[in-house]
Amino acid sequence: xxxxxxxxxxxxxxxxxxxxxxxxxxxxxxxxLTGIDGEIAEAFNDIAELNQGLAKxxxxxxxxxxxxxxxxxRGKLPAATGGWVECVDSVxxxxxxxxxxxxxxxxxxxxxxxxxxxxxxxIEIEGRPLRGEFLRxxxxxxxxxxxxxxxxxxxxxxxxEVGSEGKLGGQAQxxxxxxxxxxxxxxxxxxxxxLTGQVRNIAEVTTAVANGDLSKKITVDVKGEIxxxxxxxxxxxxxxxxxxxxxxxxxxEVGTEGKLGGQAQxxxxxxxxxxxxxxxxxxxxxLTGQVRNIAEVTTAVARGDLSKKITVDVKGEIxALKLTIxxxxxxxxxxxxxxxxxxxEVGTEGKLGGQAQxxxxxxxxxxxxxxxxxxxxxLTGQVRNIADVTTAVANGDLSKKITVDVKGEIxELKNTIxxxxxxxxxxxxxxxxxxxEVGSEGKLGGQAQxxxxxxxxxxxxxxxxxxxxxLTGQVRNIADVTTAVANGDLSKKITVDVKGEIxELKNTIxxxxxxxxxxxxxxxxxxxEVGSEGKLGGQARxxxxxxxxxxxxxxxxxxxxxLTGQVRNIADVTTAVANGDLSKKITVDVxGEIxELKSTIxxxxxxxxxxxxxxxxxxxEVGTEGKLGGQAExxxxxxxxxxxxxxxxxxxxxLTGQVRNIAEVTTAVANGDLSKKITVxxxGEIxELKSTIxxxxxxxxxxxxxxxxxxxEVGIEGKLGGQAQxxxxxxxxxxxxxxxxxxxxxLTGQVRNIAEVTTAVANGDLSKKITVDVxGEIxELKSTIxxxxxxxxxxxxxxxxxxxEVGTEGKLGGQAQxxxxxxxxxxxxxxxxxxxxxLTGQVRGxxxxxxxxxxxxxxxxxxxxxxxxxxxxxxxxxxxxETLATFADQxxxxxxEVGVEGKLGGQARxxxxxxxxxxxxxxxxQLAANLTTQVRAxxxxxxxxxxxxxxxxxxxxxxxxxxxxxxxxxxxxxxxxDTTLKNAEQDWLKTNLAKFTxxxxxxxxxxxxxxxxxxxxxxxxxxxxxxxxMVEDDAGEPVLDLVASYxxxxxxxxxxxxxxxxxxxxxxxxxxxxxxxxxxxxxYVTIGSxxxxxxxxxxxxxxxxxxxEVRAVIELASFNRFSxxxxxxxxxxxxxxxxxxxxIAANMRTEGLLKQSQLxxxxxxxxxxxxxxxxxxxxxxxxxxxxxxxxxxxxxERLQQTNEELEEKARLLEIQKREVEGKNREVSVAKTALEExxxxxxxxxxxxxxxxxxxxxxLRTPLNSLLILSKLLSENRDGNLTDKQREFxxxxxxxxxxxxxxxxxxxxxxxxxxxxxxxxxxDVALQDLVENLNRTFRQLAEERHLAxxxxxxxxxxxxxxxxxxxxxxxLRNLLSNAFKFTETGSVSLKIGSAEGTPLRAGSQWMALSxxxxxxxxxxxxxxxxxxxxxxxxxxxxxxxxxxxxxxxISREIARLLGGEIVVESRVGAGSTFTLFLPFVPPxxxxxxxxxxxxxxxxTSAVIGRQPSGAMALSASADxxxxxxxxxxxxxxxxxxxxxxxxLLELARERGFKGLIAQDGAGALSLAHRFKPHAITLDIGxxxxxxxxxxxxxxxxxxxxxxxIHVISVNDEKKRGLRAGAFGFLEKPVxxxxxxxxxxxxxxxxxxxxxxxxxxxxxxxxxxxxxALLSEEDVKIFAVGTASAALEALTGGRFDCAIVDLGLPxxxxxxxxxxxxxxxxxxxLPIIVYTGRELTGAEEQHLxxxxxxxxxxxxxxxxxxxDETALFLHRAISRVPVDDQILIERTDPAxxxxxxxxxVDDDLRNIFSLTSALEQHGLEVLFAExxxxxxxxxxxxxxIDAMLIDIMMPGMDGYEMIREIRARTAFRSLPLIAxxxxxxKGDREKCLEAGASDYxxxxxxxxxLLAVLRVQLERRSGTGxxxxxxxxxxxxxxxxx
Length: 1936
Fold this sequence. Notes:
By secondary structure, the protein is an alpha/beta fold. 57% of the residues lie in helices and 9% in strands.
């Protein structure tokens, strides 16, 4: 066959063309067409393909040129021709035209950017001018370039003129610019104008200074360095002004006014100015020295002093003046030698009779010599006569007297010596008399009366009297005290000052001496020297001090040393400057104002080296070389400098004239010409010199007359002391006058000294001797008198010594030893010794007896031989001893009768007792009487109680333990009375309930019953009004109708019918709960009678229920309150009423049915009669009647059947009623018994709870000490224990832990037995249960080589409803026992149905059987193993261990769960323990527990709270039983069940397996057990502070690496991040935020490498830190600048950053702020690592921005490793082994040095806690009770925290906390409650009282340290412990 050619269908062609027109170039025609159709198809396809290629190419070019910027790219379309090529060319041309102007603009702008302003944009491109927008852009660009060129050239010109050529005032002229260029031009011009003004002002001032015009200063307004230059210039002008004025002043004073010694004081100058000042001062100083030396010598000559000469080094004319004056002095030294010799021999050496031999003298000098000789001869006779008499007195010869004829003072001496003998005869008799009376006769108080004596004699008399008086005072004081003791007055002590044996007696009687004064003299001395007296270099030498005092001493020494160095260095330099040495500068290292002083002085030294050569030359010539007339020739100076030169020249000219005139006059004086005087005009000191020289001549004419007068008075008239008064003389003349006066003075002194001594001896003063320097006969007289004085002194000293020893120091037995005396002096000595011996014997006898009394020996008596007052004292002492003996005997008798024999009422009888002994007797009698009264009162009350009288109580006053006993007995009586009252109430309750039950039995009428109930109940509960509403049915809706009332009055506005929830009656019926109204308003309702009406006080509405259905409502109103007993009675009564009402209702329904049946029967009978009557009439209707009859027959049969049924029901109801009544009686009896049992159980439970709580406290308290101390020993921080000793400590700790576990088991069992445990019922998956048990015991089975199998029977439900925790506890106990008692074989657990077992038949129970092949249990022991503390064999516990509590607890738990445990066992064959449990627990499972039961803090304690969603979540809703290797685990710590479930679902969405913990303890346990990869932590936890938990986790090496997201309701993000948190979320949290946090955690834990940014400018430091921190899991990016750090942060993500503060381009603090402001920078942990010392403000600022601060020191590397490991969340295992030791976190700085007060009544706890805390760097103070703790806090207000035990005697912890919080100063002080009695609600009570946190015993030290760290950080708000403590301490000081 021929194939048919395919043809192109027009429709296909049209369709393709339409697609082509729409732009679909992918359309194609078939290729299998032939002929013309094939060609058309081919052409069409080619066109479509070309269009498709063109579209693609244009798209490519547009993307390459427009998007990618490849402007050289062009379109290409291969195989295109014609229009296609033109199209492509057009597009390429357009691209070129567009690109070319852009390229030009880019070229020009690029050149401008590079500073090339010679480029312009071409307006023509390839001959084609630009147009339109391109032309506008080109012109704009070219204009910009031209303006920039103009601006640059003008600015360059101005800069060149101003900056290089110095042409000031130039301005840039840039026309046509605006905007920024205009601002730039204006700024440049402003700068140039400012510089012009500044430079011109400076030039003006410097020109003025150069011209000597110092009146100008720089006044232009400048800043910056120009301001510094201005200040420098102005300071220089001020210094130059000061220099000029000072030099001018000195020149005027020295050169014009003659004021020598003036010095120029120019402060702050240096250099040449300093040199000029020094030269001027040197010239003035030299001139001053020369002129003053000349003046001094001439003045001395004028005054007669010829020993001085001019010694100053001078030259020139002044040298000639010096030589002239010295020659004059040499000529005045040869006149008075012989006169001086004679005066010396007579007046000084005592050579009486000597005469002056002065040859060749005459005139006045001869007269003077004769007068002196006459005075010496007269004195010789007088002195020799006085010597004779005094010698006789010294020898005891008082018969001689002075007879020489004398006058004046010598006459007074004569009378004195003659009187002395008369006064020496009245001393011995009086002294002898007193000695006899005191020493022999015992007459105390006697005094010697020696009239007219004085001095030594008066002293002797006084010493004897003092001795007698002291002895009198001592003995009388002793007698006074001992008499007072005898009289019972012990308030007195011996206060007399005694010594020796008397002192021993005093000490024996008084018995106590206080010595309290020893510390601060050296510190005070050093502080005074260094701080007050300014003795630099001083150092405190305080030995033996340490601590703060040593620090204070060191600080003071350091301060003194620093100041010494600084001040001495400054002093060296300034002294050198003052001495003209300008080579020194201050080099000491100083700061602050001393640095400024250093700079100032150094600048001054630098400024003193450049000016005064010419002035120095002139000063040297005039002032040094003595070239007078010289003038300074200083050319070219002007202004001030010209004035200075003129002043110096003027000064030199004036001095030249003055010195020459003085030289002329002194030369004339030297030549004996006194007619000349100085006439030159002078001032100042030169004027004084002029006056001195002019006066000298006038002072040489008045000498002889005065000397002659003195010689006559002294030598002839006997007027001693006369002196020549020659005014105005000096030199030799003065020497002569002085020699004469000296001779007279010497003689006067000698005679007066002799007279003074003899007068003193006459007056009894033996302390004086003749001390004047004498010679010759006067020397012999001096020796005689002094010998006499020595002998008298010897006697007086011995008598005085004995008197002092006996009378003052109490040294009895002393005797006076006076050698060489005789006569009266010997008698006196013997009398004194006799008196001392007598007193010695008497006092020693008294001391012996008193000492015996003090030692309790009352048998000795005083038998001293004495008279007078001593005898009276002996009698007093003896009487005292007798009284004391009687007192002791009587008190002993009373004590024996009352205290031993029990004879109450005895009294002590001490006749004659008084004072204190009387008081003591009374006190003892009062004690016996009080005890008698108290004991009899207690006995009386106890007797009454035993007789049943509980109204009595002990009312006697008592205190102490008797008061405690009284309170205890009274409390016991109150408890008995309360118990009796409660029993009476219960009896009343039960009696009345039984009464109502009996009363209501048999009643069938509701109205009667309801009225009867109200009538009986109202008076019983004191109700005055009542109503009774019954529930009725109204159209299917229950309503309450009033059926009975009591004293009820109708009210219009109140209905007698209520619906549900209508009114209180309807609401009560609806809620089925009692409603009690108290304090009813007055207009609510009234209770009325015939006499009046009033509003009730209480209204109660009661529902009457039967099987939880409301039957009725009773409402009662009363004037009184419904008591608890009434309310309980009403509640129980309503139950009985409900039963009765239900019974009556059933009876009424039965009766109703009976009546209905009877009615139907009667109606039937009437109808039958009618039928009979009409039967005849209805025969025709027989058929229908027959039908009716059949119908009626059927109805009758049915009625009969109904009647039978009703009769049967009535019979059954009657039976049921009788059964109900019988059961009611049984219930009533059982209820009564149950109530009694319940009361007993409640009481027993309360006693048991209290006992267990107290026992818990008493057991845990010593356990706390044991566990803490044993843990400290096992840690061996000091390294001083051997391994064996550490093992001992670990064994002790393990034993304590086991004991704690045992205590917890006992408490657990107790709670279970008391029924106070609630169960947490939920769905428990059997598979999860099996996996958990398998995981728990598989390892144990392998270790013990036992087979272990768990079998689950098929067909069991997937889950059961029970308490998962309790079920696992029971199974763990059973399996643990099985493994414990099985040595070989196997252990198995089988879970199956209980159907078929003999104990639990039925499929709704399951059996869990634990079978072992162990030792087995004997049959007779199988019962006791379930009892507490019981095991099958007494040896079992010793062999296998254990307490015997496990099975007891398991059995009780099984019963709580509604099940039971049974055991099957044979000895040696093993045992099977089967736990039977229902699949669904009974309804009463999980009953509430008593609120008073303690919530034990033990590990196995039952957490007793009601089942909730939160409880179910932790056990079954999380993934703890579905975790496998490789899973990512997140631990959710959240107490809100709903929020925890949300977090769990979100975690699962992000691929995590979730664990839920609702408290801190559970979180720690889960974290250690499961080791999660991430944690979300809610801060508000029920059992502990979330911050403390965070701290615990971050300080535990096992968990510190886990990233923790903190979730809190407070915005404390910075605090969380500083504490090591990975992130922070604030509640309420959005879903997206939680997802981001979980995703961030997932990303972090899956990322193997952590990125660390290191910013350190020191390359060596950077390298060493990188080497320290670099590991496989840490990648370090190390940079040296802040800019590089910011760039790195922009380009990458980091987990931590280390920043040094000293960066070259930007401060570290500012870098941190920029990082915080950047994206993701807020949460980046930043560690500041610096070696710079930080100020307080810097540290505070950094702590607000950085995470932590590390100062570079010896341990900084360890801290850096530690902190980076924390913030990078590195596990310890990932850290190199060598570094793991370094990063084990030591105690943070916030605990180091903190002071903590520990208040606990148990010293063991104080010791253990103190030891533990001190190992962590804390200082611990302690107190043993609350009041002492508060006193300790007040005495030490600088405290950081307090640990307070709650259970303390006196003031407990709650009261103490409240009292501390009441004080403003301690409101923020962290108070941490610590107790071993962890009752339910105790934590809340502690926090409510004001505690900051709560820790229970035994104390977990890690938890306690975490709480302390958190509280201290919270108090400071900075994380800085040091800042915490300073702030706290400062506020404590302010409060004080």
